[in-house]
Design goal:
Elements: H1 3-16, E1 26-33, E2 36-43, E3 46-49, H2 61-69, H3 77-80
Antiparallel strand pairs: 1-2, 2-3
The protein binds zinc ion.
């Protein structure tokens, strides 16, 4: 393999353990919860989940779980409120 490409792979592995270098701008995921699947979106530092609990509370276990998983790369405001 091309030695310069091998260096790129090593650099990528180095970056991959530095989440503070990443700021997620938009994100959408399907979350397989215990009671069904939910769509979670993140845009403009605002989270949204389509589960019943989220309505009126603007927070739920699905959003909190995503914030924990993506810590350092997304806003965690919903957890603090
Ligand atoms: Zn939810």
């Amino acid at each position: 393999m091309d030695p310069s490409f091998m260096k790129k792979i090593e650099k990528a592995k180095d970056y991959a353990v530095q989440p503070d270098r990443i700021k997620i701008k938009t994100y959408q995921a399907e979350f397989r919860g215990d009671n069904g699947n939910h769509t979670i979106t993140y845009e403009g530092e605002q989270w949204h989940c389509d589960c019943d609990y989220y309505v009126g509370r603007e927070n739920c276990t699905h959003v909190m779980a995503m914030q924990i998983m993506l810590e350092g790369m997304v806003s965690t405001e919903a957890v603090a409120s």
